[in-house]
């Protein structure tokens, strides 16, 4: 899967988290789902390709948990899937 976001690609840059994440989504998401969102948000700044298996290994989460998290965030409209790519809103 390819992750995309705006053009900020400097090492040691900050990762912006939309305020709506805190006001609407934080209370709805499990800790594992939050880990997934934050990590893909971070990676999306760099236009990185990452496989779900690699994401599971990096975050020490089970493959099905990653799939459930991606589906959760997609259903909320926080990430969108375009073919094999995900876009963080």
Notes on the protein architecture:
With 89 residues, this protein is of the alpha+beta class. The chain is built from four helices and three strands, in the order E-H-H-H-H-E-E. It has helices at residues 19-25, 31-44, 52-59, 63-76; strands at residues 2-4, 79-82, 85-88. Strands 1-3-2 form a three-stranded mixed beta sheet. It is globular and about 30 Å long.
CATH topology: Arc Repressor Mutant, subunit A
Strand content: 5-15%
**Number of extended strands:** 3
What's the pLDDT, averaged over the residues? 85
- Alpha plus pi helix count: 4
How many domains in all?
1
Shape category:
globular
| Biggest β-sheet: strands ordered side by side in the sheet | 1-3-2
- CATH class category name: Mainly Alpha
The major pleated sheet works out as:
3 strands, mixed
Quickly give the CATH architecture: Orthogonal Bundle
SSE-based structural type: alpha+beta
CA-atom Rg in angstroms: 12 Å
């Amino acid at each position: 899967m390819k992750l995309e976001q705006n053009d900020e690609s400097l090492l040691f840059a900050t990762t912006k988290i939309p305020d709506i994440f805190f006001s609407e989504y934080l209370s709805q998401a499990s800790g594992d789902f939050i880990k997934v969102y934050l990590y893909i948000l971070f990676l999306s700044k760099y236009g990185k390709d990452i496989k779900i298996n690699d994401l599971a290994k990096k975050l020490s989460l089970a493959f099905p948990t990653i799939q459930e998290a991606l589906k959760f965030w997609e259903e909320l409209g926080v990430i969108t899937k375009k073919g094999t790519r995900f876009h963080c809103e």
